[in-house]
User: What shape does this take?
Amino acid sequence: MANRLASHQHTIVEPVSTSGVGLHSAAKVNIRLLPAAANTGVVFRRTDLDNFEIPASWKHIARVSYATSLMRKSVLISTTEHLLSALVGMEIDNVIVEIDALELPILDGSALPFVRMIDAAGRRRQRAARCYIKILKPVEVVERSKRIAIFPSGPSGDAHTLIRVNKSANSHGVANTSSRAHSAETRSSSGFHITSEIGFAHPMVGIQSTDITLCAATYPREIAPARTFGFLDELDQMRDMGLIRGGSLANALVFGPDGLLNPEGLRFADECSRHKVLDLIGDLALLGHPLIGHVVAEHAGHAMHTALVLKLMRDRSSWTLVTSSDLADELGHDLAANASDFSSETAAPELAVSHAGAD
Ligand SMILES: [Zn+2]
Assistant: This one.
């Protein structure tokens, strides 16, 4: 069954703003999302630097370590992944993001506040057709035990994915809510599917995996609320590196030796794994178009995500741009082909006669 794919581009209806602090810089920052014309994409605008613009594109990927940063002509925009993830998840193609500092606000550490902003702004359909990057052949980046790969969607693409899919439970034995039954259907569809696995030595995290087909219905519920996370014994070292100066229990999960420090607890048993998927979606947004393909990530982080983006963009034979009507045509051809296969096996002689008569 085909996944529902938006046929047209979308922007927001009206401007919407919020403010907060940057996770790493601790700088106070205001951001405002503005509607944008079709084919604009997502463009950051530094209002503190004469409205200097940096498109959210693989062409401007800069430093990537604990967050993803974009740079154009030595102007930076940092920690772009959560907002970009929300925009992809909510199927917003075109928007201007005004920002008056170098780092996006961390807010509660998840993408949920951005989802609520987008909801408040409203979603407006535009006249232009939405273009998708359709994966044609596998592309993979491997670094020791880390791996990220992207495969074509659909039955032919899935036959050779060789994924260690969905171990289905984390260290607590809690089953992932992203269901296997769901994935069995969606795997064979034309959409954006993600299978991700993480592994951390902490007993409250352990090995977790998430398996999801992304759409505007699943993202706000299953992925957006998952918060960024860290481990108490790494925090001093990160601060020494100039990172997480704005970090607190209000915007990150922190795991200590005796358990989670956040008094409110987890939003999902596998919240860490879901947050990695959130980040992955935000980093893949730098492709500039929504994806039709299946991403498989094992212990990957921002550096691996962006390495995949760059490898994919450099291998022009691995993907093509399609609209949803191109896909409908393809599906039509496939159905016709299947129908004739079926007919030739079951009722060939009679069909041959009737064809001869009809022609
Ligand atoms: Zn994150």
